[in-house]
Amino acid sequence: MNRYPVPALSALVFLLPAAALAAESAPVPLAPPARTAPNAPSLPPPAAPTAPSRPGHQQQDAEAISSAVFGASRPTEDDAYGAYQRGQYLTALALALPRAQKHDAAAQTLIGEIYAKGLGVGQDSAKAAGWFKLASQRGDMLAAFELALLYQQGAGVPQDKKRAAELFKQSADAGYMPAKYNLALLYIEGVYVEPDLVKAAALMKQAADSGLADAQYDYGNMLLEGGGVLPDEKAAAHEIGLAAEGGLLAAQVDYATMLYLGKGVARDLAGAVRWYRQAAEGGNPVAQNRYAKLLAVGEGVDLDLQQAAMWRILARRQGLSDPVLDKLLISISPADLAKASELARFWPSPPPTAETPKLAATPPAAAAPPTTTTALPAPAPAAPTQTP
Description:
By secondary structure, the chain is mainly alpha-helical. Helix content is 55%, strand content 0%. It is built from 18 helices and no strands. The protein has helices at 18-22, 57-70, 79-85, 89-101, 105-117, 125-137, 141-153, 161-173, 177-189, 197-209, 213-225, 233-245, 249-261, 269-281, 285-297, 305-317, 323-328, 334-346. The model is unreliable at 1-63, 72-77 and 370-388 (pLDDT under 50).
């Protein structure tokens, strides 16, 4: 299910100040990357029953779904939930229906999830909305959140963003952290609720403290710029660093930039290189471009024009061109440039290597028949000559 789309915070006030970026030394230009603001996660679908999972991953999903759908007091071995988690969706539906008909909000929410995601049944947003509505009326915070998403998108119900905002608030007031995050974004946007940066910052902090990487990143930027909260560069760097560790690519780029500049944190060139590289490997074009520059001049990393050219190609594929980087690579050899193009072509996998074809084994030559040789008599020794 798509999550609540929100305005890009880059269009608001929450990015690194231009003055600090302009003061940065070469070779890395640190204009803030454009970012579409992330969305709060909805309930993750369980793994398909035939798909292999990482050790422990299935159990983590089980606990997350059990806590979110059935509540912390529900046992993880709940029959309907257990069938859902194992991918036995029709069984889960059959087990949940009798409970749902007896006004069990958790069972109603589970049925809504099955129809919303089309798990074992045809995807049906209208049916999902009906079940989510019943559960939300009985106070289920996850159902209110999911129903808000449907109203925001106009999926299965008429699009009504004002109603979506009301449901986000209902879910947030009940303590659901993704709803608090989305409500904070609504207060920032100020379209379907009254704009209020102070309320937004308070809600964002709660969501950030719960471990939501998106909220940590956005709250860090609010701390950086003083959006609804007193500016605090050190606290901002801490929050953005947490979001980077949580796997948010935009946060990894910004945290690398803060480490490079020593903004809110001690300057750490090696750390900046590490985060730029991690975000580059994650596919972020800004990180790819900046990491390429560091490689092209050997700052914080061994100089490597071939690798720099590969990252430049990958960034340009996503529409990011940089004349400064092009000049840094003007001295690259044709052979290195060709190799960089090959690496970029197959990235992230290594290029295939041609194996030397194995020659067919040659059968051993037939042994030659033995030959009989006749010994010749040794020549008689020459008569000695007398020297005068």
